Amino acid sequence: MQASSIPRLNVRGLAPALAAVGLLIAGVLLLVYAVSAAAWLDRPFLGAFLERDLTVGPAESLAGAEWPALDAGLRQGDRITALDGADLESVPVAERLGALHDLLAQHAPGDAVSVRFEREGGAVPAGARCVGPASPGGARTCTLSVTLADFPVGDFVAFFLPGWIAGAILWVLAALLFARRPASPLAQSVTLVAAAFAVLVAGQFAVLTAQTAAWPWVVALALSGGLLVVLALEVPYRFAAVEQMPALGVAPAVAALAAGAASATLYGAHDAEISRLGLGLALGTHVLGGAILLAVMLWRRGRASSLAVRSQSTILIFGALPALLPIAAWLVALIISGTGVPALAVLTQTLPALLPLSALFAVAQGGQLDTDRIAARAGLYAALLALLTLSYFVLVAGVAALIGRSMRDLAVSPALIVLAIFGVALAFNPLRQSLQRRIDAVYYRARSAYQPLLEKFSREVTNAVGLDQVARLLMHALEAALAPAHAILFVRDAATGDYRPRPDPATGQRLTDIVFGAESGLVRYLRARPGLLYLEEGRPLPLEVVGNRASLAVLGAPVIVGLGGQKGLNAILAVGPCRGGAPYGYEDLRFIESLSDQVALAVERAQAVDDLERRVRVQDALSQVSRALNFAIDLDTLLELIYAQTRRVIDAPVFAIALRD
User: Fold this and answer.
1) What is the predicted pLDDT for the residue at 331?
2) Strand, coil or helix: what is 38?
3) Which of 123, 152, 201, 569 suits 171 as a labelling partner, its CA being 20 to 30 A distant?
4) In Å, what is the CA distance from 371 to each residue of 234, 309, 378, 460, 534?
5) Cα–Cα distance for residue pair 187/176, rounded to 1 Å
6) pLDDT score at 2
7) Is residue 227 within 8 Å of 221, Cβ to Cβ?
């Protein structure tokens, strides 16, 4: 791998500082959102969430509490123009909401205020005095009396607390990770993502209530999309292109920051349509970044060569799927209806936090979790939940049809609930076991296909004695399962310690003349890290192996496995690419690892037998020479005896004895 000639920007040195600044800004914004929410709670509540131009928003009570303005007859789209005779329409749009709050601060909960508003078409609320055209669709100016109240505690809990608490937890966890691993690129990327998402989930109440602190939330919304792309480039490992050109690693964040600045500018515009365009741009940037992260993680998981890579990719997929759904629903609603979905406030405050939490967990636990088993179990219980829900619905509907009662009454009937629980208790275990078998058969189909081959190989290799027989069984198993272009077994030479290729069992010829020295970089790497080394395209070689780069390129084997034993590294298995050209998948590499575990034992056993036989031959040769020296023999006979016994011990193509004249 040649070093890139493109000049490198010193972005890695700035990364810790950027992560620290991001954490600091997120912490300050969390405090600002808490203070502004407390001020909102202390202010008399008119009974509706208003936009900056005093248009009534789509939000309603999530706790079933009374909202005075909405209960009095105001609805989404109405625009307030005056309060208690104080004209608000003449106030600049950017200052109208603040002017309304100043007027409300002069009152107390329980006071009645006169609200003048404009409505585009439709019926007018009862008790309102209206002027204007009575034709359908015409705008009317109406006046309505509204009694102020305290903001309901239940709605404060629903609209603010879940997001702020989730943001605070994210911020604390990100700070702890950064404090422990400030120099780690993974920790830096995850810290920035968690900081942006902390602002994202904690600041939604400010957006719903059109507070002045809403614009940093818009920037964080767009910036988080770019940071998700950065995360996709860094986790579980950094792409080779980013390794060669570090500026590529920060380009998505810079682009997203520019989009965030544009979004905040548009969001602060006086025109409502332009403001919604700014929010839509930020939402679109976020959803696009999340979709890229999800696609990259799916690609990485499909090409994973180790449990760590597969585990970290799967954990991020688990976090990204539920996190993106409410934000995507918000974007779709904004495009279709021009407004968000306040009813999803609890979901939009909590589910997005799952993505940075999954990234924090993936980096912290190092990828040693068996996520395949978790995914299979999750699929099982999701299927059980869906089946039980459908069964209960069918049961309630059938009984309701038989006795002529409503489904709503029967759904909470104690007798029917007891009957359903009894049925579940009887059928749950057989049903769970049946579903488990079916899900495992689908999810682990590749693993199940390899299992008979592993069992057959295990039986046959147990009886193998010599290295030739072990190599023959190994090549047959690889050919039956993977059909590699070639596979070479390098065995340690007991005399020199070098690793020399064994002849191909099918042809008896060596496929390569490459020899790995006892102290070569590859041997040292495999000796320190026993197991499989997958030379994935586009991923840099480990530093210890760079010295053997030319030999590995000639060898053309993407899979290198060290076969260790009690006395160290006994052999090296090199597996060439698939004949069809497809890359090896995780289950393919897992099969090779399973084979290598058994081959390592067989090779060590065969080497022990060969070493024992060699020692016997040496002793026998020395014994033959010793007995011959006890008799008077001529020089030629003695030299012939030495030659014959030496050839029994050493396979030397050339043998010569030099005698002094």
Assistant:
1) 79
2) helix
3) 152
4) 20, 11, 10, 32, 21
5) 10
6) 40
7) no
Tens digits of residue pLDDT in 406-458: 666 666 566 666 666 666 666 666 766 666 666 655 555 566 677 888 888 88
Most confident of 40-54, 115-129, 216-230, 599-613: 216-230
pLDDT of residue 166: 93
Beta bridge partners of 501: 490
The residues near 528 (Cβ < 8 Å, ≥ 6 apart) are: 544
- DSSP 8-state assignment for residue 360: H
User: How far is it, in rounded angstroms, from Cα 50 to Cα 59?
Assistant: 9
Residues 6+ apart with CB under 8 A from 580: 483
pLDDT of residue 1: 37
Dist. CA 32–CA 244, nearest whole Å: 40
**3-class DSSP string for 234-288:** HCCCCCHHHHHCCHHHHHHHHHHHHHHHHHHHHHCCCCHHHHHHHHHHHHHHHHH
Q: Which alpha helices (DSSP H) does 106-213 contain, by range? A: 153-159, 161-180, 185-202, 204-208
Residue 304 has φ and ψ, to the nearest 5°, of -65, 140
Query: Given a cut of 80, is residue 519 above it in pLDDT?
Result: yes
Query: For 606-636, how does the pLDDT look when each residue is reduced to its tens digit (9 = 90+)?
Result: 777 777 777 777 777 777 777 776 765 677 7
CA dist 245 and 4 (Å) reads: 8
* CA-based nearest residue to 97, from 203, 214, 202, 200: 214
Q: Is there a contact between 509 and 503 (Cβ–Cβ < 8 Å)?
A: yes
Q: Closest by alpha carbon to 290, among 227, 351, 216?
A: 227
* Helix, strand, or coil (residue 135): coil
Q: The whole model's pTM is what?
A: 0.73
b/e code 93-109 from CB counts within 10 Å (16+ = b): beebbebbbebbeebee
